[in-house]
Design brief:
Helices cover 80% and strands 0% of the residues. With 116 residues, the chain is mainly alpha-helical. Keywords: Membrane, Transmembrane, Transmembrane helix.
Length: 116
C-alpha cells in the first residue's frame, strides 16, 4: 500500500516481496490438501449428517473451499500485477487481491476450536 500511495516505482524487489507472499500460501495449500485426505476431520467427515453440525461442516467443506478460493484470488492478484505496466496499478493489484485473500483465510479459521 505504501508503494501505491507514495507514487514509488514498482521494482524487482517489490515483485520478489509479492512472490515471497505467494510461495508460502501455495505450500500451505498443498499441506492442507494432504491433511484433508488424511485427517478424520476432512474428507472422511463429509456426509449428510456432518452437514447438520456447524463444526463438521466448517472442517469438511467451508474451510477447504474458501481457502482454495483465497489462494486463487492471491494468485490472480500476483499474475495480474506481473502483466500491468503502471506501477501504481501493480501495487494496487497486489494489496487488493492479497488483502481479499487474507480476509477470506481469516474468516474460515476455526477460532473456537483453538480457544477451547
Amino acid at each position: 500500500m505504501v508503494g501505491a500511495f507514495s507514487g514509488r516505482e514498482f521494482t524487482e524487489k517489490d515483485r520478489k516481496f509479492a512472490l515471497f507472499g505467494l510461495i508460502p500460501i501455495h505450500i500451505q495449500l498443498l499441506v492442507g490438501i494432504i491433511l484433508y485426505f488424511v485427517s478424520p476431520l476432512g474428507l472422511a467427515n463429509l456426509s449428510g449428517a456432518a452437514m447438520a453440525d456447524s463444526m463438521s461442516r466448517l472442517y469438511a467443506l467451508e474451510h477447504p473451499l474458501i481457502n482454495i478460493i483465497a489462494v486463487g484470488v492471491i494468485t490472480v492478484g500476483y499474475s495480474r500485477a506481473k502483466k500491468l505496466t503502471d506501477s501504481r496499478n501493480r501495487f494496487r493489484s497486489i494489496y487488493m487481491f492479497y488483502g481479499v485473500g487474507l480476509v477470506l483465510i481469516l474468516s474460515r479459521i476455526p477460532w473456537t476450536a483453538w480457544l477451547n
